[in-house]
Input
Amino acid sequence: MTPSRVASFLRGPTSSPAPAPVARRGPGHPHSLRFPQSGEGMRRASVACSSTSAAGDEGMTYKGAGVDIDAGAELVRRICKLAPGIGGFGGLFPFGICFDHLIIVLLNSPFVLVPTRARGRDHYLVAGTDGVGTKLKLAFETGIHDTIGIDLVAMSVNDIVTSGAEPLFFLDYYATSKLDVDLAEKVIKGIVDGCQQSDCALLGGETAEMPDFYAEGEYDLSGFAVGCVKKDKVIDGKNIVKGDVLIGLPSSGVHSNGFSLARRYCTFSIPPVSNLYTFIGNDGITTTVGEALMAPTVIYVKQVLEIVSKGGVKGLAHITGGGFTDNIPRVFPSGLGAKIFTGSWEVPPVFKWLQQVGNIDDAEMRRTFNMGIGMVLVVSREAADRIIEESHGSNPAYRIGEVIEGEGVHYV
Output
């Protein structure tokens, strides 16, 4: 690939594992918003929505919006036949040698030495990779670009922490038809922010300029994270038993899944987002529907690792595409399922709005969106009492269900 097509550079390594804080730009901290528990405190303005079905017709589905979860599951099943051992939230790789530094080789780049916080044959490297899906479309329409990088980091580090792994470093890929340096800087600042929140280094990245490949003003993102965990500390769900408790950690909203369905009926570019549906939180903060949907994905790394360090955690599920219905069973041994207490946590109003305007039934909502819970911990009863008792302030936790005999997820 010629220099005119690709700008390849190394954005790192940083001098310390956590990148320095960066100035935030754009709308004021949408991730700090709190939403009301009921329809009170919300007001409706003009919302640009369209529907091809008459009132009372069958509700909208994720598959109808163009995303087939069953097809994705079938692809994973086939890949597992080709490469046995994959299928978890993160992939584990045993260390082959003892070392004080991890040597990373990047194409077209020099060697980079990264100090490791774990050494020797008794550890696994844990890796995860992801993008942010069609949430990018909403970023283009709203003009909110300074937090989409947080989403990108979150989607990978939240996956690898489900093994009990501590993130070490992150790399990103940014692609566009014509490089807008100011826009790219906003996106990368979000990535740096996400790395800071997860206490990992932004080791490097790739910026690709590909004329005519993307629409004007648009870009694509992907990235991956690598972490490590001691072999005797891996969380794999094998010890989960009937009667264990499900603890839910709240989300900031939709996070980075389900936007193909969320965008199916509603257009946010005309009229301006500021004139659309708004939410007023219990603390008096008002946000538009666009800002609520763009609230960055919560990065659970520090909270989860602190809980794990105190013992009793047997399994972890990052609630992304597939919602509760598909993600929670991934951590269970055969023959076990989950009972979810649907009234045990606050469902953010943005989900109620999506369900209303899309005429989406409960089962579809639970299989598409996180519904206000972004991470689920499967813990012993003793650990559950301690976790709930110690949760407070900005890091709440809810007892949302329990492990039962059977298969699947049951809602009560």
Remarks:
- The chain has one domain: 6-21+29-411.
- The chain has eleven helices and 17 strands.
